[in-house]
Amino acid sequence: MNRISQGLVLIGVAITSPVWAVSVPENDPAAARDGGVIPVSLNQAENLTAGSASLVPLMAVEMEANHASYVDAPANKGGGTAAKPVDDLAFVKMATESGRKEVAAARDALPQLKKPELKQIAEMLVADHSGANERLAKIAEAKGWPVPAPQPAAPPPSGTASGDFDARWTAEMIAGHERSVTLYRAQSQAGEDKDLRKYAHDTLPTIERHLAQLRSLQK
Fold first, then answer.
1. Cβ-based neighbours of 129, under 8 Å, separated by 6 or more
2. Domains and CATH numbers, the chain
3. What is the pLDDT of residues 160-191, one digit of tens each?
């Protein structure tokens, strides 16, 4: 029985950092107290010889792997865990600039778009994103956070639109809204500031609806 007990490693003690366990000779006094097993710290484990019977507790390894997979998980288009959110100030900057670009792109495209359905979507984008930008600016102002200064307006489009303008504009809007969905989903699930989380949570369905409508009209 003594020889069998030397080959067993008992894992069940709550730990806060990985601990190694090694089997030791039967005549070791410490082994007699601990049933043939002595816990060894990670630093001490570096000095173990190649022949030492050492094991890493599987529970600690699994917990570390699960933590890494959550932090680095990509955005799920169908919902669920999103990518790691940016900090609050970075979110304000990115969301503000993205919203302004989409408003400008939709407004400038209106004279060139041919499909009536796309014109309706462009008008909706101008209204919805303008409102979202105003709400975000009020939150940032109340907290004393900086808001990016507006960029100079681009010159309005002129001339006859090319035959594939509708398709190119739709593809660009889809790509922009996919990035926005990823940004807002991450912030709504794990952002630090509760007001920004609520803003992202309330605005996300609108952006997802835009994306679904744009995709439905893409050739």
1. 99, 100, 102, 103, 106
2. 2-71 (no CATH), 88-217 (1.20.1260.10)
3. 455 689 999 999 999 999 999 999 999 999 99
